Amino acid sequence: EAGVAQSPRYKIIEKRQSVAFWCNPISGHATLYWYQQILGQGPKLLIQFQNNGVVDDSQLPKDRFSAERLKGVDSTLKIQPAKLEDSAVYLCASSSGENSGNTIYFGEGSWLTVV
Amino acid sequence: KQEVTQIPAALSVPEGENLVLNCSFTDSAIYNLQWFRQDPGKGLTSLLLIQSSQREQTSGRLNASLDKSSGRSTLYIAASQPGDSATYLCAVRPADSSYKLIFGSGTRLLVRP
User: Nearest by CB to B98, which of A41, A91, A100?
Assistant: First the structure.
């Protein structure tokens, strides 16, 4: 079974530039998550989708971050304009349902450095 | 607001030693607790999940315990090996918003040959 795919794996941009990350969840998984993990910290949930609807985006900095999940499959996370403090790993994860008992599977992450 | 703390932040042990990683959480109203492993440059892999009604879960050399009333969980690793070197994260699902996972900052473990 293919895992959660993310691209690009690494990105270096200057502050005020924009960047987009792509995620392809495990086939058939209805729930998709984007987490931000700053070095030395645990992951923090940015947004959770159930199919193509948003369940929780309370910690998404909406003035610069946006995410969409068209057709309830792939998702993109965009940052525009980027700030130095956005340097982090952006982890995409998926699970088969919203049920809290479902196992969550993580991708390997997209590493962003803002200089 | 639920907060999860992991102590120590880093740990270095010789191969073969038994060790304990600690996780504490401020609100005992949780749905479940999970332990994850994160290798450098990789995503997270789920190791053990303990439901709020359970006291412990075991998988191979790993044993996780949960004391919900005191807000504590421990991950016990028996006979540690260099391949166990990784960051170990615990995460809780609050009972009132069980779709969320709230993570601690992790313990970086190094097992020396």
Answer: A100
What one-letter code names the amino acid at A55? V
Rounded Cα–Cα distance for residues B9 and A102 (Å): 28
The residues, ordered by sequence, that sit 6+ positions from A99 with a Cβ below 8 Å of its Cβ are none
Amino acid letter, residue A51:
N
Query: What's the CA gap between A49 and A26, in Å, rounded?
Result: 14
Give A109 to chain B, closest Cα distance, Å: 6
Predicted confidence (pLDDT) per residue in A28-79, tens digit = 999 999 999 999 899 999 999 988 899 999 999 999 999 999 888 999 999 9
A81 to chain B, minimum CA–CA distance in Å?
Answer: 25
The shortest CB-CB distance from B43 to any of A41, A98, A107 is to A107
